[in-house]
Amino acid sequence: MSSINYTTRTEGQTKINTIIWTVPNFTNLLENKSTREFRTEKSKDANIDLTDSRFQLKMQFLGRDNDIIEIYYLSPMPVFLKSILTICLKRFEERSIVIKEYHTVQANKWQYLATLFKRDIASYDGRDIFLLSDGSLRLKFQFMVTNDIKVDRTNVPEAQLSNDFENLLNNGLFSDVTMKCAEGVEYKVHKAVLASRSAVLKAHFEHNTTECITNVVESPLESDVLREVLMFIYSDKAPRVDEIPEKLLAAADYYQLSRLKSLCEEA
């Protein structure tokens, strides 16, 4: 069971919420492949309920061997805040992980904060640096909530850009080029999108190339792999990265998609 130390103080118009989250036996948690999520719990103090009145925290474990740890927080109300995440080291030192400047946060929506990597923490040297003497991982969160700027408490719709571009791929609306896979399956796509995401694909359209004249790009990839690559190019999503990581890794390398390559290497 993890422990939470929650303190608040006020400086002018800013309320500073400091949370120390200690997760015991963290390497055991990483080695348990059934672990996919770990959250803060309700306070044992009857007057304090972390799920109702304070920030909540959670970790999500991704990859086949829990290689990626994503950190999230949730605010019970809409706020304008600055967030800082620090890891407490064994030798009474602290190391800053991320600082996010002031921005508006919706109520009761999990907000991504940072990513940690198993290879950094669970290695022999990593355990000596990042874990406490009893094997615990201790994280320090600071949420600085200001009243200087009025927060619109109306629910703001979630960002739709990724979904809109995914729909553009699916319906082929206003497409101006065709990508053909190794089996001959064709996908109606858009030069501007391809060129903005891949330097390799951009080169097909910059000069008087065959692709530029015919508006057909031949790809050596299999149909299912090319479909996933296009999904990533349009939406920044890789839903099948855990199913076909080797094929997607080769495709990402071929089209110079560095983020997709990193996702495949961590899968």
UniProtKB/TrEMBL annotation:
Protein name: Speckle-type POZ protein-like
Domain BTB: 175-242
Organism listed in the record: Galleria mellonella (Greater wax moth)
